[in-house]
Specification:
Length: 192
């Protein structure tokens, strides 16, 4: 009599665990997030992801990626439509917020957030570094190479839907002097 064939789901879980074991927690989370994204899947709730494949709930390793939420996470475009950031610096802060709250990734490198413009189907800014630096200067992001993170101020800004912040990126025009305003009026009158 031959041995029973192993369950392919249990085999897959064992294979994944063995592959991830040598990596640190953050690297494990990045690999899992990338794998799920490539498969077009979101992180399932804890009961669904563990209990349904025969792994007792509560037996996950510390730092597990499983979410205890029973609802689907917000998509990036959905979050952009809800929060309505008005500048590229605000969009960058929203991307850091999305990484933290949806993807469960606390830290990032400056360039990690640039790819979210493409994910959101938004043209990347012409000067991404300037816009990122603006977010850092405003205190919304703390920059520390690959250990950069969203600050409490940045988190509150996104949760408040950027209330009270300027929603345009151009500097306001300086008022014209009386003589330049007069010249502009004369020029307009000559055209008529």
């Amino acid at each position: 009599m031959s041995a029973p064939k192993p369950d392919p789901e249990v085999h897959a879980v064992n294979t994944i665990v063995q592959a991830l074991r040598p990596l640190d927690t953050e690297a494990q989370q990045r690999v899992l997030q990338s794998s799920l994204a490539l498969l077009g899947l979101a992180i399932a709730g804890r009961a669904q992801s563990m209990g349904e494949i025969g792994i007792p709930i509560g037996s996950e390793a510390p730092g597990s990626f499983a979410s205890s939420a029973s609802h689907k996470p917000k998509g990036l475009t959905e979050l952009l439509l809800e929060k309505k950031p008005g500048t590229n610096s605000q969009r960058i802060v929203l991307f850091a917020y999305y990484r933290r709250h949806v993807e469960q990734l606390e830290t990032f490198h400056r360039q990690d957030l640039k790819s979210y413009f493409a994910k959101a189907r938004i043209a990347p800014p012409a000067n991404y570094d300037r816009d990122f630096t603006t977010a850092v200067s405003a205190g919304w992001i703390h920059e520390d190479d690959a250990n950069s993170y969203l600050t409490t101020t940045g988190e509150q800004l996104v949760e408040g839907s950027f209330e009270g912040e300027r929603t345009y990126s151009a500097q306001p025009k300086r008022p014209r002097s009386k003589s330049s305003a007069k010249k502009a009026r004369n020029k307009t009158q000559r055209r008529k």
